[in-house]
Amino acid sequence: MRKYEEKLHFDKYYNKLQENNVLQRYSGVVWGIAGYVLLYYFARYILAYIPDFRPWGDIETWFAVGGVRFIKADLVYFTFGLILNCYGTVRLSKITVQNHSARSETGHMPQKLLVNGFYAKVRHPMYGTFIILQAGFMLSLRSFAGMIIALIVIIIQYSNAIIEEKKQLKPIFGEEYNVYIKNVSCILLTRSQIAALVLAALFSAAGFVF
Questions:
Q1: Geometric angle at alpha carbon 128, from 101 and 78, rounded to 5°
Q2: Distance (Å, rounded) from C-alpha 59 to C-alpha 74?
Q3: Taking the CB of residue 128, how many other CB atoms lie within 10 A of it?
Q4: Is 189 left (phi over 0), alpha (psi -120 to 50) or beta?
Q5: Listed residue (87, 64, 201, 80) closest to 143, CA to CA
Q6: Which of 55, 44, 7 is nearest to 208 (CA)?
Q7: By C-alpha distance, which of 86, 146, 97, 147 is closest to 125?
Q8: DSSP string, 16-58
Q9: Strand 68-70 versus strand 63-65 pairing type
Q10: CB-side neighbour CA atoms (13 Å) of 194
Q11: How many CB atoms lie within 10 A of CB 133?
Q12: Torsion-angle region of residue 171: left (phi > 0), alpha (psi -120 to 50) or beta?
């Protein structure tokens, strides 16, 4: 997980979180929503030029922007994706703060095994949050291709978690980690989060049968 924190510059974001600046947090929310809107449109723009099966494909166009066609159902899809994005972003920031509490002075290896907070429910909450953000976004695009990419994202994140446990965490913490695995059986997502993603996938696929 440390390599992801380095690639995504979590140290910089962690320091900002510690500043506890209210104006900075509100501006971050505004920029986050604006960024999501642009990302959503950009993804829809690309998918518009890729052969694809789309739910409710025969429904009358509500409006179009730059060649991208939107129907009224897209408002529901978009809102769903935005809610997941906000939830995942807040969750990711809190997990980052907790991760830093276990870091060693060099910052390369954890000083202790985290077993409380987010880690009391799942063993890899950050990978799970990536699924919520990435797979949730792809499921909000009203696209068969998006559903396939969401599945690939889930497979990749589960693979990352399994490899990290085998190559890093078990060698470092040994029997302590084996006990932790017995106490916390969920790897990335809680049962309620899995149920929510399954419902999202079913909702994303619903238009294919109507």
A1: 120
A2: 11
A3: 27
A4: beta
A5: 201
A6: 55
A7: 97
A8: HHHH--HHHHHHHHHHHHHHHHHHHHHHHHHHTTS----TTTT
A9: antiparallel
A10: 9
A11: 19
A12: alpha
Q: Using a CB cutoff of 8 Å and minimum separation of 24, what contacts does 103-110 make?
A: 107/2, 108/2, 109/2, 109/172, 110/172
> What local confidence, expressed as pLDDT, does residue 48 receive?
85
- Nearest Cα residue to 10 out of 88, 129, 92, 82: 92
Task: Tell me what pLDDT residue 106 has.
Answer: 59
Question: Sorting pLDDT into bands at 50, 70 and 90, what band is 189?
Answer: very high
Helix (H) or strand (E) holding 70: strand 68-70
Per the CB < 8 A criterion, the answer to whether 149 and 133 are in contact is no
pTM equals 0.82
Most distant CA pair in the chain, distance: 60
pLDDT tens, residue by residue, 77-111? 999 899 988 888 888 888 988 888 777 655 556 67
Q: Is the pLDDT of residue 121 over 90?
A: yes
CB 14, CB 99: distance < 8 Å:
no
